[in-house]
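Subject: Predicted fold for BPL/LPL catalytic domain-containing protein, 404 residues

User T.R. writes:
Posting the sequence so we have a shared reference for the thread.
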Amino acid sequence: MNALGVRITRSAITAGQWRSILGTVNTNQRQQTFSSSASNDSNDGNCNKNNGNEITRKNITDADIKKSVFISQSYDIFTNLALEDWLYRNFDFSRHHVLLLWANDPCVVIGRHQNPFTEANVSKLMDKGITLARRNSGGGAVYHDRGNLNCTFFTPRERYNRKYNLNILTRALFREWAVKTEINKRDDIVINEKKISGTAAKLGHPNAYHHCTLLVSANKLHLGESLVKEDANYISKATASVRSPIRNLVDVNRTVNVPQLLSAVGYEFLRTSATELEDGGSTQTMKQRGFQLVNPTEKWFPGINVIRQEFSSWDWVLGKTPKFSVEKELAIKADEDKHLKMKLIVEVDKGLMTEIGIEMPSGERVPVVSQLQNKPYNEKNLNNIISALKLVSTDNVKQAINGL
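User M.O. replies:
I've generated the structure tokens; pasting them so everyone works from the same file.
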């Protein structure tokens, strides 16, 4: 049994055997830095483009392509994001298509271009022990736990086919449990218009991946509480998630579980032709490389620790947030019976509070000098500013707020 409870019919590989599989590593990409790999969702400009290799890849037929299902043995979101990124950077998928299956402990994962404070209640996540992570692809925010199966389909860029991948999932659900699903215009998988799977992608050169989730038995209470923005008015041009009603697969069929779903999706992938949605059955399955348990460690994937450190760093998770401002209404005491309404305005750039100001009842904006300027934006620091301002009398507010 593997970490997800699945019995693998082919033996798990060792680190030594894994080295032989890495004979298909793309050495032209292997030395990329995290920043160059993360530079663009649709185009990685620093990747080595070889027109000769591209022509060769286009001449590869379906029969030339082998398929593998890799199953991550980690439940750590940063480790799994690093594994996904490592494969994207280093593996040569021209003759070897890969489906990576993985699950995480409770976490919220936002898209590369999103603002975590408009997508999630960041302070509550910390209180509940739910990890906040930022992935390297676009798209919206999602909640993961062990009742959620994640699927990443790796191919060369020219064979990227999102509809093919989604149909692998819908076919697996129908074949195993007779669960009928639809793929909507946003490429979500839905049941009666309720989403069970969201999707995102990373398109580069020469590789691409499409990843998506499958909600099996996720904690819907935690999901709902986690994906609610903090109490303030945020002004941001960051990519916003499209909110949709969701459904767990167990709400449709109580027998669905993550281990069995992992097996069903994996076998559906292996039995299907590499470039067309043609079912080859057991004959096609036996031609493939089967299921492989992979251990995302430095021994197996040299350099993965550095990638994980980048994904888990403050600079990536919060510092990568697009510039935004936050506004909070305040009631400053004028006398014993009266309060004047003012507005606190904080400008945030690269996760830091670069400008702090008060908008007076007249509409005039007055800068605030505070020791918290250029400190990380978070609920605690924002509340400290608010608490200090509430002690200020409006009789001398302009002078006093410059000494906070």
